[in-house]
Automatic annotation (TrEMBL):
A Gene Ontology term for the protein's cellular component: plasma membrane
Localization: Cell membrane
Name the record gives this protein: Mechanosensitive ion channel protein MscS
Native source species: [Phormidium ambiguum] IAM M-71
Predominant location: membrane
GO biological process: transmembrane transport
UniProt keyword terms in alphabetical order: Cell membrane, Membrane, Signal, Transmembrane, Transmembrane helix
Length: 528
């Protein structure tokens, strides 16, 4: 909705920019119209400007139509000039300036006479009840068709186009940009607005009272789209031309994306390079093609590139004033692409997040976290802060699994059990081999660390979970005790520190003794 408002405001601004220069022009001709239909144009003669002549003719035509009587249109010669009369009133005097080359004044007057006669007859016909009923019926049919077409667009969007696009909940897994949905929604809104605008203009054209308003709106739209609004160098460009350029540029981006995918899947895939190198080469090739294609497109479009120097100056000032952040991210992106401290497919730690690098652009990097969320990180973050890259340099990573055992456990037996649990997992490598380290003595337990090397760092949490499950099974099979948290409460006196009856004291002592023997949390309470 916000994007649609921006587009609407841009369209209105374009209308204003396009119409203002048109309205400011002093045209040498003015149209003679009747009920919004242009009949012919009049030129300026002597002290009468074109608009004054046209206004007088329009007023006489409107009076002839409103009278409701059959109009008599004829040509009379006055002072050697043919004059068109309507019901005895002089409508226009045909001069040499009103006639095109090769046509005499009399021939032009005869043509205009027929046009005026037909226009008056048509205007009177459109004011009769029969035509009004017909136009009203057609208007209702148009409204019903517009409602149906609007509903059809929504139905096609919901049941045909939307299933073809990545669903919002699947965007994270497909890495498809949500801008596809936004573009489709904008196109849908524009089609609906265009449908109702066309319906309104068509209905307005049916009735003579509203035809002039519809004509003004359509003229405004035509002026907006066709009149030049941007001057670059010696050339001027209209909204239509700018729209064509934008469309060609979007086509260029789509073409370069296809070339990038083909290069990555049909060429680089068979070179034996790793995924990060393939992505880097494909990204660099994509940007080179975009730059070359943009320059060629602007030249083929007829734009003098030297006229863009002013925009380059404005861009430089913008970078100096408020675009330092964007420029910094751009430079950081280039450093990452060429130096490759991280690559697509690497498993990294960024702050409190861990994930796999999915995409690297010149501004930001997309990371797929372990929760399957898309994390967008500015490129400068990788150069200014510490980042752990589990995939950089060595293909294997070390994991540690803390284990506590009871004091009375056989350490050699425990060590072998831990090594067996680690070696049985398929993702644990044999070289370097797993190891068990005696870390420290605890209050009621011994601290051990099981270390193992894995070749899938991104699966380390699942591997740890699997190994812990296997450790629990082996400990139970080999009767290795896992200590429970213990607390010892010593009473120096044989009596509780409160005055209780002998019966209640005996009951509490017995109850505490039972809990010390049967408690599942392993608490040991000793009375002395």
């Amino acid at each position: 909705m916000k994007s649609l408002k921006i587009i609407t405001l841009s369209f209105i601004l374009g209308c204003v920019l396009a119409v203002m220069p048109v309205l400011a022009q002093q045209n040498s001709t003015a149209p003679v119209t009747l009920d919004g239909r242009q009949l012919f144009k009049l030129s300026q003669i002597n002290e009468f400007d074109a608009q004054t002549r046209a206004n007088n003719a329009n007023e006489i035509l409107n009076q002839a139509v409103v009278s409701g009587k059959p109009a008599e249109v004829k040509v009379q010669e006055i002072n050697n000039f043919p004059v068109i009369q309507v019901n005895g009133k002089n409508l226009v005097t045909v001069t040499d300036k009103d006639t095109p080359v090769g046509v005499t004044r009399e021939e032009q007057a005869e043509r205009w006479q027929n046009l005026v006669q037909d226009a008056i007859d048509q205007a009177q016909k459109e004011r009769r009840p029969g035509y009004i009923r017909y136009a009203t019926l057609v208007s209702l049919v148009c409204i019903v068709l517009a409602i149906f077409f609007t509903w059809l667009l929504g139905w096609l969007w919901k049941y045909w186009l939307l299933p073809l696009l990545p669903e919002p909940e699947r965007i994270r897994e497909t890495a498809a940009p949500p801008k596809v949905h936004l573009l489709a929604k904008v196109v849908l809104k524009l089609l609906r607005v265009g449908t109702w605008l066309y319906t309104f203009l068509y209905i307005a054209n049916l009735f003579p009272q509203t035809r002039s308003w519809g004509q003004r709106i359509s003229d405004t739209i035509v002026y907006t789209l066709a009149e030049p609004i941007v001057n670059l160098g010696s050339n001027s460009y209209s909204v239509i031309q700018i729209g064509i350029l934008v469309g060609l540029f979007l086509g260029l981006l789509s073409l370069t994306k296809v070339v990038r995918n083909l290069l990555r899947s049909r060429v680089l895939l068979f070179t034996g390079m790793n995924q990060g190198d393939q992505e880097t080469i494909a990204t660099i090739a994509n940007y080179i093609l975009v730059c070359i294609g943009t320059v060629l497109l602007l030249q083929l479009w007829g734009l003098d590139l030297s006229s863009l120097t002013i925009f380059a100056g404005v861009l430089g000032v913008g970078i100096g004033l408020g675009l330092q952040g964007i420029a910094r991210e751009f430079v950081s992106g280039l450093v990452i692409i060429f130096e490759r401290p991280i690559q697509v497919g690497d498993f990294i730690n960024v702050g409190q997040f861990m994930g796999t690098v999915e995409r690297i652009s010149v501004r930001s990097t997309e990371i797929r976290t372990l929760e399957r969320l898309s994390l967008i990180v500015p490129n400068s973050h990788f150069l200014e802060k510490e980042v752990i890259n589990w995939s950089h340099g060595s293909p294997v990573a070390l994991i540690k699994l803390p284990v506590r055992i009871a004091y009375n456990s056989d350490l050699q037996k425990v060590r072998q059990a831990l090594l067996d649990a680690a070696k049985e997992h398929p993702d644990v490598v044999d070289d370097p081999a797993p190891n068990v380290l005696f870390k420290s003595y605890g209050e009621n337990f011994l601290n051990l660390d099981l270390t193992a090397w894995i070749n899938e760092p991104k699966k380390q949490f699942l591997i740890k979970s699997d190994i812990y499950f296997r450790i629990d099974e082996i400990f139970r099979e080999r009767n290795i005790e896992i200590p429970y948290p213990r607390q010892e409460l010593h009473l120096r006196s044989g009596n509780l520190p409160v005055e209780l009856s002998p019966e209640l004291e005996a009951s509490l002592t017995k109850l505490l003794g039972n809990k010390a023997n049967n408690s599942q949390d392993g608490q040991n309470i000793t009375l002395e």
